Structure formats: structure tokens, C-alpha cells
Amino acid sequence: MPLDAGRAGWSMTAMRIFSSPFSRIGDSLGLKGALSWLFAGFLVLGLGAGLAAADSAKSALFLDKGQAAQEAGRIAEARGWYERAIVQNPASADAYAYLARAENEAGETTRAERHFASALEIDPNNPSALYWSGLLDLQKGREEAARKKLDRLKKTCSTCPQRAALAKALETHGAGKAP
């Protein structure tokens, strides 16, 4: 059943439930239907928030499974878990960042760049996306783009380990250049 249909069904049920307590008050004031719909709407909003929380929890579980697979070297499996996390919660910048990291590790740099862009569109200050996309920028020879990401990390997350790691990568990258 589509989510909207489910909510409509809950609205009708809630309306029936809330109709009876207000029947005498609502009938005398002509508000029975309005009060019923008002309380049904509150119920539906609460149910919607609960469904969103469940989706976020499931997405986090998929991210955990993806990270475990990636750490074990099972990149294809990790990508599958990250994609499932995105399906569960399309607004998760972390899910896109982790998928991008796995894509990059698999040699799919174009796809990685696309997923990093999605992560940073959702959350322009996501530390993981800034760090890993900064590393990809260095890998592609775009040192200035990596420095901009480091600057953003310095402004938004001065104590994040990603800031220190990207700074070190930039320093190492710069040291490897001929004078």
C-alpha cells in the first residue's frame, strides 16, 4: 500500500475514533467534522514522524553493514548496502558519501564524484564527504579544490579528524612536487 494511501486510511480511522467524544460538543457548535479532521491530522503527522525515524534507523543499520563489508574488502557488497541506505533515507548525506568512497575505491571515480556532489548538496559541511572528496580531488590533481574543502572543514568542524587528515594529505601531496 502506498504511504499516502496508508495515511488516508489512518486519517479515516482517526476521524471515526475522535468523532464520538466531540459529538455533543461538536454538533452543538457545528464543529464535529472540523475537530475530527484536526485530531486525525495530528495523528497522521505523528505517525509520519515515526515512519521517518524508522527509515533513518534502518538506513543507519545499512550504513553500518556497508562499512563492515568495506573494511573487510568486500567493496561490491558495501556498495549494495550503501545503495539500500540511500533508498531508505534519500536525505542521508553520509549514505551518499560512503557510497562515493566505495565507488572511488572500486575505480569508479566519475560515479564517486557524482555521489560526493549529492552528499555535499544535501549537507555542504558533511565532514566525511568533504574529506573523501578532497582526497579524490588530490588524486585527480585538483589541489586547489581540495584546499577549499579543507578551508570549509576548518570553518565548520575544527576538531574533526577529517580536517587534520585532509590537511596532512595536502601537505604530503605538496611535498611530493618538484620545486
List the main descriptive attributes of the protein structure presented here.
single chain; 179 residues; mainly alpha; Serine Threonine Protein Phosphatase 5, Tetratricopeptide repeat; 9 helices; 82% helix; globular
In short:
The chain has 179 residues and is mostly helical. Helix content is 82%, strand content 0%.
Notes on the protein architecture:
With 179 residues, the chain is mostly helical. It has a domain at 91-179: Serine Threonine Protein Phosphatase 5, Tetratricopeptide repeat (Alpha Horseshoe). It is 82% helix and 0% strand. It has helices at 3-19, 23-29, 32-71, 75-88, 93-105, 109-122, 127-139, 143-156, 161-175. Helix 5 runs parallel beside helix 7 (127-139). The longest helix has 40 residues, at 32-71. It is globular and about 45 Å long.
